[in-house]
């Protein structure tokens, strides 16, 4: 079961729209918590869908997402399962991938990056305070928390989904991150940007660092997101 989704639009039409935003929320968040952002995008003419994510909302919600043991056990499982569910979600809702723009914040940024890397027909990606470099980010998590390194099995599992070294869609990408983020290390996003621009030689990639911003989705980030969506 892929669960429910929230639907926001300035029109009741869903089929054959040129730009449909699929918005993924962060760890421990809720689709309801993104209503304001979704409504702002809808005012600009975008259809916005917010999928319910496993272990959140009505889908086997965890009692305390921010308990460190719970986070370590379920974070990557949540990211990878949501990536796996994407094709079924698109089929059930009846969308065309070429019309989809992926937007994700925090954990949602990981999810959006992972989906983008596996679907060359997607029209665009916005990753906010997330990461497109899964293995590097997990290694950074463990160093920061003074934990053991990954086993080879754990690393191989992440590599299957890691956007690094995967030829992705040639569509435009916007990456945003606070330079003082203490939750999701900025290094993962920087590494992915370097991969796209240096290895893939992509020229339609924007990388914006927000000064003195911790793990937040600020009004300035929202303004940049809306402007970017309207420009592509």
Automatic annotation (TrEMBL):
Note down the stretches annotated as region Disordered: 147-166
> Does the UniProt entry include the keyword Hydrolase?
yes
Q: Where is the Dienelactone hydrolase domain?
A: 15-218
Basic and acidic residues compositional bias: what residue ranges?
A: 147-165
Q: Which domain of life is it from?
A: Bacteria
Which InterPro entries does the UniProt entry name for this protein?
AB_hydrolase_fold, Dienelactn_hydro, Dienelactone_hydrolase-like
Assigned keywords, A-Z = Hydrolase
Q: Name one GO molecular function term.
A: hydrolase activity
Is DNA-binding a UniProt keyword of this protein?
Answer: no
Could you tell me what this protein is called? Alpha/beta fold hydrolase
């Amino acid at each position: 079961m892929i669960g429910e989704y929230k639907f926001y639009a300035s029109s009741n039409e869903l089929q054959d729209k040129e730009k449909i935003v699929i918005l993924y929320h962060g760890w421990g968040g809720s689709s309801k918590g993104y209503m304001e952002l979704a409504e702002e995008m809808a005012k600009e003419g975008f259809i916005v869908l917010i999928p319910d994510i496993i272990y959140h909302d009505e889908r086997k919600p965890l009692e305390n997402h921010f308990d460190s043991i719970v986070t370590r056990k379920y974070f990557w499982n949540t990211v990878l399962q949501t990536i796996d569910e994407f094709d079924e979600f698109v089929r059930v809702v009846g969308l065309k991938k070429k019309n989809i723009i992926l937007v994700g914040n925090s954990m949602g940024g990981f999810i959006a990056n992972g989906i983008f890397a596996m679907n060359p027909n997607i029209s665009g990606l916005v990753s906010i305070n997330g990461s497109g470099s899964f293995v590097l980010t997990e290694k950074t998590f463990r160093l920061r928390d003074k934990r053991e390194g990954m086993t080879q099995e754990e690393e191989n599992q992440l590599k299957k989904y890691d956007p690094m070294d995967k030829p992705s869609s040639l569509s435009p990408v916007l990456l945003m991150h606070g330079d003082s983020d203490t939750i999701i290390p900025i290094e993962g996003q920087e590494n992915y940007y370097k991969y796209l621009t240096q290895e893939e030689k992509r020229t339609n990639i924007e990388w914006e660092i927000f000064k003195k911003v911790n793990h937040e989705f600020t009004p300035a980030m929202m303004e940049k997101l809306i402007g970017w969506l309207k420009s592509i």
